[in-house]
Amino acid sequence: MKEIIQTDTAPAAIGPYSQAVKVGHLLITSGQIPLTPSGDLVAGGIAEQTGQVMRNLEALLAAAGSDLNRVVKTTVFLADMNEFAAMNAVYEQHFTAPYPARSTVQVARLPRDVRVEIEVIADLS
């Protein structure tokens, strides 16, 4: 049985999907882009955008009664792999060891032409 997780402290879905889904002991988030909870695109470069994405993920995890310490896997989508180091500098401020597994890929384009999108899987057990 799946439970839909929804919160006003993260941006609403901009399509036919859920912000996050809890199934069993797992929480799976949709990819978060740098939109504020009110739906505005964050100004600035990759560092500012990554910071907003991480705040959105924290809000979704909190809505499920969890936090970043329970994340076991992340997937990072970058518009430009040359921005990896700047993204990673912000990303690592939000996680502590032992770190989650991670995949990072460059993609041709992201929604609203943002620089970064991140999704996570967290263990809620």
Automatic annotation (TrEMBL):
SUPFAM superfamilies documented for this protein: YjgF-like
CDD domains per UniProt: YjgF_YER057c_UK114_family
Name of the protein this chain belongs to: RidA family protein
One Pfam family this sequence matches: Ribonuc_L-PSP
PANTHER family: 2-IMINOBUTANOATE/2-IMINOPROPANOATE DEAMINASE RIDA, 2-IMINOBUTANOATE_2-IMINOPROPANOATE DEAMINASE
Family: Belongs to the RutC family.
GO CC terms in record: cytosol
NCBIfam families in alphabetical order: Rid family detoxifying hydrolase (TIGR00004)
Single GO molecular function: deaminase activity
